[in-house]
Each structure stands twice: as structure tokens, then as C-alpha cells.
Amino acid sequence: MINIIIDFLKRHLFNIIISILLLIIILLLSFLIVYELKNKEKKDELYIEDTIISDEVIPEVMEEYIFVDVKGSVKKPNVYKLQKGARTIDAINASGGLAKNANTRFINLSKELKDGDAIVIYSNDEIKKAQKQNTIYVETPCICEEVKNDACYQENNISNAKININTSTKEELMTLSGIGESKANAIIEYRTNNGNFNVIEDVMKVSGISETIFNKIKENITV
Length: 223
Hints:
Layout: H1 2-62, E1 65-72, E2 78-83, H2 88-94, E3 102-103, E4 118-123, H3 124-133, E5 163-164, H4 170-173, H5 181-194, H6 211-217, E6 221-222
Parallel strand pairs: 1-4, 5-6
Antiparallel strand pairs: 1-2, 3-4
């Protein structure tokens, strides 16, 4: 019996070896295919996870900011970093809120801010002075509504309703009540020959400018 088996193996050894090798190759290929499929599934899962993470991260990375200068009657005047789309009230809150005696009557609290904006919050005293003089001096632009008394002005764009009798042109002087061309020329001639007026009352030294005329223009002139 053993001899028969040995004889069979001798005659079919090559075929047996080939069959075993083929079986090993098939097993290896099967293993590799299964391994690749599982690896692909893991990659797909990682891709999906990365996509979800990216959707959560991108908005934070892309978030934009602006810088706004807050001045005047606030508790902590300074330059503040705010989110894009912030309003005037957000900038005031960032600066600690309004100081005592602050006046926001002429400020548009809902105005959307831009990068580089400056907000000036005036006090009640400053507003009263502006209303009385019809002018207010500021060093930076302010965000405010258009109001009758123009309490807010852009930088280097200071409005002054009063006529300076030392520097005004003939045409500007002629806008004053009771001052025609001849009196305007007389004012210019007087200051040219005698120097600037020291006080507004000195204008009565000009020929033709009586006290009656002075009383009409005194509220509208300055030196």
C-alpha cells in the first residue's frame, strides 16, 4: 500500500506541486483583494470625515474682522477689533459703553461699520456748544445722521456759519445783512491799511458800519 502511494506521488508529484502553488497563489490573491477592499473603505470613511471636518472649520478660518476707532464719551476709547457686519452699537459696547453725560442723539446706532471707521461720541455739553455756535471741531470723521445743526463733521471739513471779517472775501462779506458791495470793500480796505480786527466791535471803525448795522451782523461774524 505504501509502495502504491509512493509510486503515485512519484508519477504525479509535479502536478501536485503545481496545484499547491496555484492554491497558494489563489489564496494570496484573495487575501490581497480583500485587503484592498477593506483599505478602500477606510479611505472613503476618512475622506467623508475630512469633508465634514472641513465644513466645520472653513467658516471659522474665513471669518473676517474690521478695526474701528471709538472716541469721545465712552468708558474706554480705543481701536477695537469687531466682526465684519458689526454696527455702531457693537463698537460702543466693545468700548465699555457710554460715559456719563454722553449724547447719542446725532449718532446712528444701527449703522453698519466698515474697516477704518471712526466713531465720535459727543457729550451733552459738546452738543449744546455745537448747537449754539453751529460748529464743532473734531480731528477724525464721525458716523452720524444728517441733522440740522450738523453736530458731526468729516476730518478737515469743519463748518463755520460765522463770517471771519479778517479773512473773508468781498462776496462772503456781502452775505451779511446790510453789507453791500461798497461796505464790503470798505471792510477789506480798512483791514488792509490798519491790520486785522481784534474784536468784532472794531468793525464799527469802518466808515459806513453803524451800530445799527453791527447789531444786525454781530451774531454772524467772528475774528
